[in-house]
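Hello Y.,

Per our agreement to keep a running log of every chain we model this quarter, I'm adding this entry. I've kept the format consistent with earlier entries: sequence first, then predicted structure.
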Amino acid sequence: MRCGVIARKMGMSRIFDEKGRHIPVTVLRMEDVEVVSTKSMEKDGYIAVQLGFGIKKAKHTSKPMRGHFSKSKIEPKQKIVEFKVTEDSLLKIGDKLSVNHYVAGQKVDIIGRSKGKGFSGAMKRHNFGGMQASHGVSISHRSHGSTGNSQDPGRTWKGKKMAGQYGNVRITTQNLTVRKLIENDNLILVEGSVPGSRNGIVMVRDAIKHKCPENAPFPAGLFSKEKIVADDVNNDKKSDETVADEFSQKNGDNVEN
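Predicted structure for the entry above:
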C-alpha cells in the first residue's frame, strides 16, 4: 500500500479528449510535498509516512514543530499529514513527491473539508419534507416536527437530526479519475468535483475499491535530483535575466531623459 499526497485545490476547468468531448476537471497543485518523518513498527507500533506540504515561515511555526523540522533538516511546512503504508512502501526523509506518483486513468480517493454553510434548518440540512402546506399548519411549514419522546426516556436522543451547522465536515469522495498530469506545473487534473473550497488543502490517495495500476511507480513517484538541480539553475537564470532587463530599462530611461 503506497502513501498518498497532499495538494491544493485551485479550482475547476475542462479538457478535451481525442473525440472532442469536453471533460470537467478539478485542478490540484502539489507544493513542495516532502517526507518529514517515518513511523516504524518497532518504535511507534505502526508503519506510516509523514508528509509535509508547502512552506511556512519559521516565525509562524511553534517551537516544538521547529524542533521537529530541524531534526529532519527540512524547512517548516504549512501542513503535515500521515499516511499508513506497508513496510515495502516506506520512503526516506527528505524525499520529494512528484505528480508522477499517479498515472492517467487511475482511480483515486480525495479527502477534504466541505464548505461551511452556517446554521441551517432541518429541511436544508437533512432534506426533510417539512410540515403540510395546508390549512391549520400556520407558520410551521418548514419545521422539523417533534424531537422529544414520552416519559421513557424523557429526553432527546443524541445525534437527533435537527437544525444546526451545515457543512464544514471531513468528506471522502471515492473513485475519481485522474485525467491528466502536468509535471512542469505540478498539477493533477481529476475528473469530477473535489470536496472543499478553492485554495483548500486536500489529501489524494489510491482508491481502496480499485486495484492500483501496474504502471504506477512503486513505492512512490519522486523528483529526480537531476531535475531539482536543473530547476534551480533555470530559476537562477530567470532571476538574472529579470535583473538584467530591469537594469537595461532603467538605464534606457535615464538616457532618454
